[in-house]
Each structure stands twice: as structure tokens, then as C-alpha cells.
Amino acid sequence: MIAASDLRAGMTFVQDGKLIKVLDASHHKPGKGNTVMRMKLRDVRSGSTYDTTFRPEEKFEKAMIETKPVQYLYSQDDVAIFMDLETYEQYEIPVSTVEEEMKYILENMEVKIQFFGDEVIGVTLPTSVILKVVETQPSIKGATVTGSGKPATMETGLVVNVPDFIEEGEMLEINTQEGTYQKRANK
């Protein structure tokens, strides 16, 4: 069992038979009354997100999540196909379940899939990925890193704000937690 005050973003717990993932958690102390935990949560199975509050002392059953290294093969219709790197077993995950993660995944890329018992519940990304810029405005001569930046579309369809000197065709390192440009990738 885990107390609501110990829940952090990324943790998963069971509530009323539902598998719930914490997207955001913060302490809130109103002017009057007791401290509460404000949470943004997602039902892992249905994909719905909602905001709620808990008393800090409320207890929940922590979900035991296992991960396996896999390779992303391809998407067909509305299913993403992943292959276990050890047993070569293939897993089909509905694209709607991993829609946000798919913006960072290229074919043949290694990621980890998450299991709750035998049920596949999601994908864990590396902290950063290298993607190619397929569309952006022309670079501005004399542009510096401190400029306001411009939008760039990556090869997966992800749109990231990048510095003005970045050009189409460049390989960039992208932070997967925040969806932000980190630096040019080494060539």
C-alpha cells in the first residue's frame, strides 16, 4: 500500500479495480482546512484523464509493473507491433494507448513495454531520441541560440520549437519527457 502523499508522476496504482497512472501530483494547502493532494490521473485501460484530490493519508494498492526490452517493428491499421528482443514474441498494442509515445518512436527503435500481470499497458521511452527535421522555416543568418525559436516538424510528425539556426535535414536530440529540443545530434 502507498499513501497519496507518496504518489509521484509516472507511478501506477490500483483504485476500485482500475489501473491508474499519475500524470501530475502536488500538495495543496488551502487557506482554511487540511492539506490535500491534487492529482492529474489517467485510467490506463480506457485512456481517459481526470483531475481529482485525495487526503494525504489515503492509501492505495501500488501496481506491480514489469518492463521488457522490445523493438518497434511497424504500425498497421490502428495497432503498433513490437517484438521481444529475447524470445522474438510479438506484441500488438492499440495505437490509441501509446499515441503520445509514437511521436518519438521510429521503426526498429528499441523501447520498453510495460506489463501489469500479462496485460500490456504501455511503452517506456528513453529519456531522449534522435529525430530528423523534415520541415521548418529557412534558417536566419546570424541567428543565436537565445532567439525565440521556430517550429520544426520531425520525421515522426512531432512538432518541436527549435532555435532559428536549425535547418531541414538536421538530426536533433529531443527530450521525450518534455517534448523539447536539446541539441544537434552528433553526425
From TrEMBL:
InterPro entries: Elong-fact-P_C (IPR015365), NA-bd_OB-fold (IPR012340), Rib_uL2_dom2 (IPR014722), Transl_elong_fac_P/YeiP (IPR020599), Transl_elong_KOW-like (IPR013185), Transl_elong_P/YeiP_cen (IPR001059), Transl_elong_P/YeiP_CS (IPR013852), Transl_elongation_fac_P (IPR011768). GO terms for molecular function: translation elongation factor activity. Residues 67-121 form the Translation elongation factor P/YeiP central domain. It holds the Pfam family EFP. HAMAP family: EF_P. Belongs to the elongation factor P family. This is Elongation factor P. The gene is efp.
